[in-house]
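Quick one:
INPUT:
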């Protein structure tokens, strides 16, 4: 069973009146067109909002910071996004679905020369399966989003590459109208399920922790 198949354990954060609509939408997977839409017209700052041309940073294998502009998803709770609430926001980079598969293809062939046709077919078959897993949102650390704002083949939110960015830069992005999408109501509940599955799912029975 996929972690998304049984969402009853999330009932404490999803109002009961919204559960039927969420269940109907979950049954539509792999159609995720219901997850996001245009930026909310009345609320300027929402958890999960997608902003373009936003700086992100990560540390490479040498410990050196590397920064690049990406479309990002803001992960902070809506209540934490007013001007005077936080010094930093948490952002996850968003990449094009097809570009990510191209990157993965290059990675799998890296360092290989004179690759036989049978190996090429094996890699391409594995990439097709990898793409299917991503589109189904079965990869816990990556969130698939349907096409929006230039991402004509869909997009991937890299939840394992989140970073902290000055709240001032976030406020500047809002002032410059760089917010391009917001989650719908049921889409937001799906986001909460995805984040919980990624960060707070149960460990396997093989993990035995000390009692003291």
């Amino acid at each position: 069973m996929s972690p998304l198949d049984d969402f009853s354990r999330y009932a404490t954060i999803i109002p009961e009146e919204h559960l039927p609509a969420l269940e109907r939408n979950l049954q539509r997977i792999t159609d995720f067109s219901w997850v996001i839409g245009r930026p909310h017209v009345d609320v300027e700052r929402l958890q999960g909002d997608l902003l373009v041309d936003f700086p992100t940073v990560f540390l490479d294998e040498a410990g050196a910071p590397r920064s690049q502009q990406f479309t990002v998803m803001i992960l902070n709770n809506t209540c934490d996004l007013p001007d005077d609430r936080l010094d930093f926001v948490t952002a996850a980079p968003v990449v094009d679905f097809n570009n990510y598969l191209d990157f993965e293809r290059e990675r799998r062939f890296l360092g290989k020369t004179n690759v036989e046709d049978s190996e090429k077919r094996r890699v391409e078959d594995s990439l097709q399966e990898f793409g299917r897993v991503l589109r189904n949102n079965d990869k816990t650390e990556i969130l698939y989003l349907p096409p929006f704002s230039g991402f004509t083949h869909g997009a991937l939110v890299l939840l394992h590459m989140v970073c902290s960015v000055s709240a001032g830069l976030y406020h500047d992005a809002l002032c410059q109208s760089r917010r391009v999408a917001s989650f719908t109501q049921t889409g937001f509940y799906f986001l909460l399920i995805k984040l919980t599955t990624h960060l707070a799912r149960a460990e396997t029975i093989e993990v035995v922790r000390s009692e003291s």
